[in-house]
């Protein structure tokens, strides 16, 4: 007959019935008992010392009061240092109306007032440029108003920038190219190359000349030819032009849809 299951499991490292596990448990229990016994003895000694010191102090022995008390005091380095009082921000309007004060608060610049229990904050708003609140607080007069340049949508930012540039361009007077070249040379000492200068001069000459006589004659002939048509013919011509434009737009939309479809397939 073979040995039982208990005998088999007692030879495993993880089983509590193993000899070495029982030994470890016994040692740990004995160690705990010794520690508890040592702590109890130390408590008894401390109580006896305190009783002796109390009896001597009652009899009037001042030296006994300071006898062994130093052994139970914490070292000087462990004591917490007193935190320095940080200077808080003060506002001029806090003492403007000379409200009644307590005796300890009179003529004391270190005291920060809280009128009506409202906390005075040393912050400045970005929108209205006032002190005491932030742009996210409901106290701000511009809280519900949206700024043009403060937006999360990039398209709105670009639109606002373009509108500002358009307004500024209307207000500012236009300057010719020759005047700009002259100012660059006099103020900053910069001079453009001869090729660029020649191109600027040719552009100015062409603008001064305007359209040629042949182009003007062509435009006049086209206007006379268009005026010879009746209203029904003009309407038909406009319909044909609009149809061509609509076809072009449809082609563009189809191309865009095909591109999007291809991108979705790749993803």
UniProtKB/TrEMBL annotation:
Region ranges (Disordered): 245-267
Organism's domain of life? Eukaryota
What GO molecular function terms would the record report?
transcription corepressor activity
A single GO cellular-component term from the record reads: nucleus
The alphabetical list of record keywords is: Coiled coil
Annotated CBF1-interacting co-repressor CIR N-terminal domain residues: 13-49
Pfam families per UniProt: Cir_N
Q: Where is the composition biased (Basic residues)?
A: 249-267
Q: Which chain positions lie within coiled-coil regions?
A: 19-51
Q: Would you tell me the protein name for this molecule? A: Cir_N domain-containing protein
Organism equals Strongyloides papillosus
The organism that produces this protein has a lineage beginning with: Eukaryota, Metazoa, Ecdysozoa, Nematoda, Chromadorea
């Amino acid at each position: 007959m073979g040995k039982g299951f208990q005998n088999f499991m007692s030879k495993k490292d993880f089983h509590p019935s193993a000899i070495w596990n029982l030994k470890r448990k016994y040692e740990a229990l004995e160690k705990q008992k010794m520690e508890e016994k040592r702590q109890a003895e130390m408590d008894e000694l401390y109580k006896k010392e305190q009783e002796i010191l109390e009896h001597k102090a009652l009899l009037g022995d001042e030296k006994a009061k300071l006898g062994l008390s130093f052994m139970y005091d914490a070292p000087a380095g462990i004591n917490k240092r007193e935190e320095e009082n940080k200077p808080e921000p003060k506002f001029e309007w806090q003492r403007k109306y000379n409200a009644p004060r307590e005796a300890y608060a009179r003529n004391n610049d270190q005291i920060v007032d809280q009128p009506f229990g409202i906390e005075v904050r040393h912050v400045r708003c970005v929108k209205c440029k006032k002190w005491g609140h932030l742009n996210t607080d409901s106290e701000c007069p511009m809280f519900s108003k949206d700024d043009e340049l403060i937006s999360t949508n990039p398209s709105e930012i670009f639109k606002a920038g373009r509108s500002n540039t358009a307004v500024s361009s209307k207000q500012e007077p236009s300057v010719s190219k020759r005047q700009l070249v002259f100012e660059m040379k006099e103020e900053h000492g910069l001079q453009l190359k001869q090729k660029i200068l020649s191109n600027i001069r040719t552009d100015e000459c062409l603008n001064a000349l305007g359209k040629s006589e042949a182009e003007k004659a062509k435009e006049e002939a086209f206007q006379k030819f268009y005026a010879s048509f009746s209203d029904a013919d003009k309407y038909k011509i406009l319909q044909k032009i609009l149809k061509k434009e609509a076809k072009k737009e449809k082609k563009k939309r189809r191309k865009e849809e095909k591109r999007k479809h291809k991108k979705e397939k790749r993803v």
